[in-house]
Design goal:
It contains 13 helices and 23 strands. It is of the alpha/beta class. It folds into two domains: about 90 residues, Urease, subunit C, domain 1; about 325 residues, TIM Barrel. The strands form five sheets. It has an eight-stranded parallel β-sheet. α3 runs parallel beside α4. About 55% of the residues are buried. Bound molecules: N-(aminocarbonyl)-beta-alanine (URP) and zinc ion (2 copies). The site of one zinc ion has 4 residues, from loops. The site of one zinc ion (ZN) has 4 residues, from loops.
């Protein structure tokens, strides 16, 4: 099938152009000047023309941090690969990178293969996997090399969660040294979990068990300290480093200092840290704050975290916006911690809202239009070895394309979202634009407020090395 998208403004990471996008099968074959008349020519005419007048035409979103069916503390995150990737499509995301997790005592290979099987044939959009190393043994280090060859070129380590997926400094250094040799990218959950657990135990002993205490004990200093330590270990290990879900000014300062010194250090933040805060969201009555329990936690509005995160996004000290989509229903899931915040499963569902929430940053004057595309699509694709197949509209790239209406205001609600969640952390937020049409590898999967995709269309992406390796 040949498709021509005409009449729209193509937004890339570097600018905006009136252009037509010609697709053959799954691939973009040309960007043409407006008025190419291809659609009406007898030979070589497009079989289908999509009118993009007054729409932005952008590369499909690339969300490199999601957790479908994540097993956590006796429950499982509520979106499966099927439901979560469908919701992603509704929100203009056409590629995700999720995680396979090696828990303590497990073999990396077993955990990886089980996760590959779990995702196969389920996804509406293309997907890749990072590997969580929860037990850095000699075998795990060896497996890192094979995984890189198999298209799993990034590895998440945890400085938090002692007793489950936590790694100590020696394990972290060894994994970094291995990554330095095989080209892998180390992704770090940077929070000092040992200290956090002390504060959490003390809070519970005092009877401070409401959800807001999750935010109080996961102090910004402990994110900053871990970020600093991770950066120093990466310098010693000579490995590139990607800090995930950064939320605190103090942690951003550590990244900025490292980058100013020329270190190959990167960081992402997530919409929840840009729009939610401890006082208004986490500190709510009637256990409502549980909806906002995630780690790193929401930060206080009385400091400048959100303003500083927006600055970081502008200056490139923050290079990526991902969602860390990790949805848990209130009923039977978040409720597990009704008497003790330590038992609330950590995570917020938001895969569907990233493009809209970050577009709001454009309309509010925080970032430019090309920067929106760069943060949500181009850089994540480059960071995670998916570029130029993903993250850009150019001949040879996959035809993962979103038609975005910048003038369609609408209000997010549990009543209109597509995530498998009994609430929306974004309830009542009015956003200025809307994803209207979505193509995944040349196939229209969202159109006229209808989902036209199928489970199993999404293919596993064997990723190359990060474009940011030096
Ligand atoms: O609260 C969060 N972020 N849950 C998902 C797991 C993680 O650490 O990313
Ligand atoms: Zn994490
Ligand atoms: Zn996560």
């Amino acid at each position: 099938m040949t498709i021509l998208i005409k009449g729209g403004t193509v937004i890339s990471a570097v600018g905006a152009d009136l252009a037509e996008v010609l697709i053959e099968g799954e691939t973009i074959v040309a960007l043409l000047s407006p008025g190419s008349d291809l659609a009406v020519s007898a030979e070589g005419g497009a079989e289908r023309v999509i009118d993009a007048t007054d729409r932005y035409v952008i590369p499909g979103g690339v969300d490199v941090h999601t957790h479908m069916s994540l097993v956590v503390a006796g429950t499982v995150s509520a979106d499966t690969f099927e439901t979560g990737t469908r919701a992603a499509a509704w929100g203009g995301t056409t590629t995700i990178v999720d995680f396979a997790t090696q828990e303590r005592g497990q073999q990396v290979r077993d955990s990886f293969e089980a996760r590959v099987d779990e995702a196969a044939g389920e996804c509406a959009i293309d997907y890749g996997l990072h590997m969580v190393l929860g037990d850095v043994t000699d075998d795990a280090l060896k497996q890192m090399d094979s995984l890189v060859d198999e298209g799993v070129s990034s590895f998440k380590l945890f400085m938090a969660y002692p007793g489950t997926v936590y790694s100590d400094d020696g394990q972290i250094l060894r994994a970094m040294q291995q990554a330095a040799g095989n080209g892998g990218l180390i992704m770090m959950h940077a929070e000092n979990g040992i200290a956090i657990d002390v504060l959490a135990e003390q809070a519970a002993a005092r009877g401070d068990t409401d959800p807001v205490n999750h935010g109080y004990v996961r102090r910004a200093e402990l994110e900053s300290e871990a970020t600093h330590r991770a950066i120093q270990l990466a310098r010693v290990g000579a490995a590139p480093l990607y800090i995930v879900h950064l939320s605190a000014t103090e942690a951003l300062e550590q990244v900025t200092i490292a980058r100013d010194r020329g270190a190959n250090v990167f960081a992402e933040t997530c919409p929840q840290y840009l729009y939610f805060n401890l006082e208004d969201h986490l500190d709510q009555d009637n256990f409502e704050g549980a909806k906002y329990v995630c780690s790193t936690p929401l930060r206080t509005k009385h400091e400048h975290h959100q303003a500083d995160l927006w600055t970081g996004l502008r200056t490139n000290d923050l290079s990526v916006v991902s969602t860390d989509h990790c949805p848990f229903c209130m009923k039977e899931q978040k409720e597990m911690g009704v008497n003790d915040f330590r038992s609330i499963p950590n995570g917020i569902g938001g895969i569907e809202h990233r493009m809209d929430m970050i577009y709001q940053g454009v309309t509010q004057g925080e970032i430019s239009l090309p920067r929106w595309v760069e943060l949500c699509s181009t850089t994540p694709a480059r960071m995670m070895g998916l570029y130029p197949k993903k993250g850009v509209l150019q001949p040879g790239s996959d035809a993962d394309i979103v038609l975005y209406n910048p003038n369609h205001e609408w209000t997010i609600s549990v009543e209109n979202h597509h995530m498998n969640l009994d609430h929306s952390a974004y309830e009542g937020i009015t956003v200025p634009g809307k994803v209207e049409t979505v193509l995944s590898r040349g196939r229209v999967i969202i159109e006229n407020d209808t989902y036209k995709g199928t489970k199993g269309h999404g293919q596993f992406q064997r990723r190359g090395l990060s474009s940011y390796l030096i």
